[in-house]
């Protein structure tokens, strides 16, 4: 308990310093500061590596948000210098993970552990979901910020037609690659810090390496989910006055795609939630159904990403439907 109070005090100090710096650099506004401090405290109390995941997401996203600001100012009708994220944006990218971390603290009392269903299925689900959550959020931010600077014209994910830069649901190869890289960075951070903060057997420790491709896949998949929701449930239109893509309909706005149902924060929250659920089930299924000890390892070491993706999808469906009769005990590989 003393350790938890120390972490809480440390988090309060660190987050206050960071929030003041971020506010001066216009990365967040005052409402964003008010939301970010308790979020950081929750992450630090749950464990140092969860605080690191939050910091990696914040610093890398802020860095890429500032990259190419002059060009983004010409494209984005809602451009704000530095990003200036408010409380809605902060919570859209951290609320789900914070809830999972509160549950984790109630179970583990702040003690870190490895992903291992034999020791605790619930902890594996929660931790896997947290990794997937930040892989998705980081992937979406990297994809959006760097994809906007891509030399290739974005294509709408629903019909693959070329669209203006800044259109919700528009994807580029560079953006999707950035999303996978962002997820990989989250997975790598999770593993490296875990080497210091968590104790587990050698066999279980080796299994943690599968977090790398799984997190990369979560970043990539989360970006696709975000784009699909953005293309269908979020409005995008071209304003003939501003000569820019806007997110609200109007008399001078020509519709490009999407219904005016969700805003950008809601899209981010929904995509993060879905990716969190998928990653939680994948972590559970990969371990419980033996994929980690079987062909997933061969996929990983033989550098066959399509093989690994199939294993993740099969394992996730296996767990989601819980009908072993639908799958053979040794599912055939479609990709090699």
Automatic annotation (TrEMBL):
| Annotated membrane topology | Multi-pass membrane protein
Q: Which organism is it from?
A: Vanilla planifolia (Vanilla)
Entry annotated with the keyword Ligase: no
Q: Which GO terms describe its cellular component?
A: membrane
According to its UniProt record, where is this protein located?
Membrane
> What is this protein identified as?
Transmembrane protein 19
Keywords, ordered alphabetically: Membrane, Signal, Transmembrane, Transmembrane helix
Per its UniProt record, what Pfam families does this chain match? DUF92
Q: State the similarity comment.
A: Belongs to the TMEM19 family.
Top-rank taxon = Eukaryota
Under the heading InterPro entries, the entry gives:
DUF92_TMEM19 (IPR002794)
Q: Which residues cross the membrane?
A: 35-59, 90-107, 176-197, 209-233
* Keyword field contains Heme: no
Residues spanning the signal sequence:
1-22
């Amino acid at each position: 308990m003393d350790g938890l109070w120390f972490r809480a005090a440390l988090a309060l100090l660190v987050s206050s310093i960071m929030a003041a710096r971020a506010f001066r650099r216009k990365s967040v506004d005052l409402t964003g500061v008010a939301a970010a401090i308790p979020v950081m405290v929750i992450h630090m109390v749950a464990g140092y590596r969860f605080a690191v995941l939050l910091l990696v997401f914040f610093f890398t996203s802020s860095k890429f948000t500032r990259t190419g600001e002059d060009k983004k100012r010409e494209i984005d009708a809602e451009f704000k210098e530095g990003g200036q994220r408010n409380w809605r944006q902060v919570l859209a990218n951290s609320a789900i993970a914070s809830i999972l971390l509160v549950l984790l603290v109630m179970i583990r009392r702040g003690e870190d552990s490895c992903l291992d269903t034999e020791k605790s299925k619930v902890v594996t689900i929660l931790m896997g979901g947290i990794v997937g959550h930040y892989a998705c959020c980081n992937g979406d931010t990297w994809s959006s910020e760097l994809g906007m600077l891509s030399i290739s014209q974005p294509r709408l994910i629903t019909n693959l037609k070329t669209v203006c830069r800044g259109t919700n649901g528009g994807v580029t190869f560079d953006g999707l690659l950035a999303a996978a890289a962002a997820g990989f960075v989250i997975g790598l951070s999770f593993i490296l810090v875990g080497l210091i903060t968590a104790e587990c057997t050698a066999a279980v420790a080796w299994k943690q390496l599968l977090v790398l491709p799984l997190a990369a896949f979560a970043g990539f998949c989360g970006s696709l989910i975000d784009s699909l929701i953005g293309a269908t449930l979020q409005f995008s239109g071209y304003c003939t006055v501003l000569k820019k893509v806007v997110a609200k309909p109007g008399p001078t706005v020509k519709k490009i795609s999407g219904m005016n149902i969700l805003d950008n924060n809601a899209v981010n929250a929904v995509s993060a939630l879905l990716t969190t659920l998928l990653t939680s089930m994948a972590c559970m299924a990969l371990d419980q159904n033996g994929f980690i000890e079987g062909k997933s390892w061969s996929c990983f070491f033989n550098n066959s990403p399509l093989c690994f993706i199939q294993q993740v999808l099969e394992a996730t469906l296996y767990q989601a439907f819980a009908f072993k009769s639908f799958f053979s005990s040794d599912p055939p590989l479609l990709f090699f």
